[in-house]
Design goal:
With 430 residues, this protein is of the alpha+beta class. Helix content is 33%, strand content 16%. The strands form 6 sheets. The protein has a 4-stranded antiparallel beta sheet with strand order 18-16-17-19. A 3-stranded antiparallel beta sheet has the order 1-2-3.
C-alpha cells in the first residue's frame, strides 16, 4: 500500500505551482479548493495535475491574448520587407499604419498584425482596393469610355463602346478579369473567328473523302457532297466533319442505302419481297432462299449474321467458335444435305444424321460460325436462286431436322457442291 503524502509537502507543491490551498489536503486525485495567487480565481485543481505542471486556465488564456510587443525599429523593418514605407510613428500591431506602397506608390493603411500573418500590405496591388483613376484607365484600355464616376468593382458601370458606339454597362471586375465589355462586339468577334476561307473548307472536306457539290453556306448547315469512297450523295455539315465525325453516313454505318441492304440480304440467303423499310429494326418481308419460307426478319439481325428463319436456324450455333460445313448423302432417298455446326457442338450433327442413314461425303473446317453461316447462305443462294433447285425432302423424312438443307442428287452432284464451297472459301481468304 503506497505511503500517504505529507500534507505540508503537498501544500508546498501547490504554492510553488501558484495555488494557495483553502482547505486541508485529502488525496492526490481529489479536487482541492484553492486560490490562484496571480489572478485570485477560486478553483478546485487536483494535486496530481498541479504537480504535473497544470496551472490556472484564466491566467493561461490571458497570456495567449496578450499581444506581442514589437519595437518600432523591428516593426518598420517588417513593413519594409513587405514593400511598405511607414509615414507615421508605430503604435501597435492592431492599428492601421499609414504607409506608402513601394510598388504602386499609393498611400494606404495596413495593420502590422495582418502583414505578419501573411496578408498583402497594399490593398491596391492586392486588388481589394481600386483607385478610380486606375479604373478609368483600365476601361479605356478595354475600348470603353466611362459615362459616370466609378462606384464599385461589381456593379454596372455605364460606358460607351469606342468601337461601335453602343452604350453598355459592364462591371469593372469583369473587365479587369479579361472579359469583354460590349456584347455586340463580342458576338461579331466570335462570328469572325468561326468564319473559314474557301481553301480551308475545301481542304477539310477533301481530307474526309468528300467532294462538295455546292457553295459553302455555313458550318452548321447541311452541305451537299459526293462521297469519294462509295460515290453517293450525302449532306454532312462542315462543323461535324471538322470536329472529326465521318462525312458519309453510309460508309460510317449510320445510314443504310436500299441497294446495299438488298445486296446484304441476298448474300445472306434472303430475297426481299418489298422495298427496304428505311429502318434496320423494322420487319422486312422476305423469302428464305434456302427453304422458301416467307419470313419477316429485321435487317439489323441479318446484317449481324444471325438467322432470320426459324425453320432453318441452327440453334446453339456460336458465331465466334470454330465451326465446319458438312456435305452428306442418303442412298435410299438419293438426296444431298449441306449443313453447318460448331466443332464442339452437342449432339454432333454429323453423327445424328448418320444414325438416320446419311453418309458423310466431306467435312470442311472453318475458322468460326460467322464464316460458316456466310458460306452456307451463299451456297444455298447459288443452289436455290441461280440453279433453281428446290428442297428435296419433307419435314417428316428428317428425324433430326434440316430438311430445308436438302437437294435432289439427280439434279446436282456432291462434287459440284464441294467445288463451289471451296471457291467461296478461297474468295474469303484472298
Amino acid at each position: 500500500m503506497p505511503k500517504k503524502l505529507d500534507p505540508k509537502v503537498a501544500e508546498a507543491v501547490m504554492l510553488k505551482g501558484g495555488w494557495r490551498p483553502l482547505e486541508p489536503y485529502k488525496s492526490a486525485l481529489k479536487p482541492w479548493k484553492s486560490e490562484c495567487m496571480k489572478c485570485g480565481l477560486i478553483a478546485t485543481p487536483t494535486f496530481a495535475n498541479v504537480q504535473n505542471g497544470s496551472g490556472c486556465t484564466i491566467c493561461k488564456n490571458n497570456e495567449k491574448l496578450k499581444p506581442t510587443k514589437y519595437s518600432e525599429e523591428s516593426a518598420i523593418q517588417i513593413m519594409l520587407n513587405a514593400g511598405m514605407q511607414p509615414l507615421e510613428p508605430y503604435k501597435n500591431s492592431k492599428d492601421p499604419w499609414k504607409s506608402k506602397c513601394l510598388i504602386c506608390l499609393k498611400i494606404t493603411s495596413p495593420m502590422l498584425g495582418n502583414i505578419i500573418q501573411g496578408h498583402k500590405g497594399c490593398g491596391f496591388c492586392d486588388g481589394h482596393k481600386v483607385d478610380p483613376e486606375d479604373a478609368v484607365k483600365k476601361m479605356k484600355e478595354a475600348g470603353l469610355e466611362p459615362l459616370e464616376p466609378y462606384k464599385n468593382s461589381d456593379g454596372p458601370w455605364k460606358c460607351k463602346c469606342l468601337k461601335c458606339g453602343e452604350v453598355v454597362k459592364p462591371a469593372y471586375a469583369s473587365i479587369r478579369s479579361g472579359q469583354g465589355g460590349c456584347v455586340s462586339c463580342g458576338r461579331e468577334a466570335t462570328a469572325k473567328s468561326h468564319r473559314y476561307t474557301h481553301e480551308m473548307t475545301m481542304d477539310t472536306m477533301k481530307q474526309a473523302d468528300l467532294e462538295p457539290l455546292e457553295e459553302y453556306i455555313g458550318s452548321g448547315s447541311p452541305w451537299k457532297c459526293r462521297c469519294l469512297k462509295c460515290d453517293r450523295v450525302v449532306f454532312p455539315s462542315f462543323s461535324n466533319v471538322s470536329n472529326g465525325h465521318k462525312g458519309c453516313a453510309f460508309c460510317s454505318g449510320n445510314a443504310v442505302h436500299p441497294e446495299d441492304a438488298v445486296k446484304i440480304m441476298l448474300e445472306s440467303g434472303y430475297e426481299p419481297l418489298e422495298p427496304y423499310p428505311a429502318h434496320n429494326k423494322t420487319k422486312w418481308k422476305s423469302r428464305h432462299i434456302q427453304c422458301g419460307t416467307i419470313v419477316f426478319p429485321y435487317y439489323n439481325t441479318i446484317q449481324n449474321r444471325k438467322s432470320g428463319c426459324s425453320v432453318c436456324a441452327v440453334h446453339g450455333l456460336k458465331l465466334e467458335n470454330p465451326a465446319y460445313l458438312y456435305i452428306m448423302v442418303h442412298d435410299e432417298f438419293y438426296s444431298i444435305k449441306v449443313g453447318i455446326s460448331n466443332n464442339n457442338a452437342k449432339p454432333n450433327r454429323i453423327k445424328s444424321h448418320a444414325s438416320d442413314g446419311w453418309k458423310l461425303f466431306k467435312q470442311i473446317n472453318l475458322p468460326n460460325g460467322a464464316i460458316a453461316t456466310d458460306v452456307e447462305a451463299k451456297t444455298f443462294n447459288w443452289i436455290r436462286r441461280e440453279l433453281g433447285l428446290g428442297v428435296h425432302l419433307t419435314k417428316k423424312m428428317m428425324k433430326h431436322h434440316g430438311y430445308s438443307e436438302t437437294v435432289d442428287a439427280n439434279e446436282i452432284s456432291v462434287l459440284e457442291i464441294e467445288k463451289y464451297v471451296n471457291g467461296l472459301i478461297k474468295g474469303l481468304q484472298s
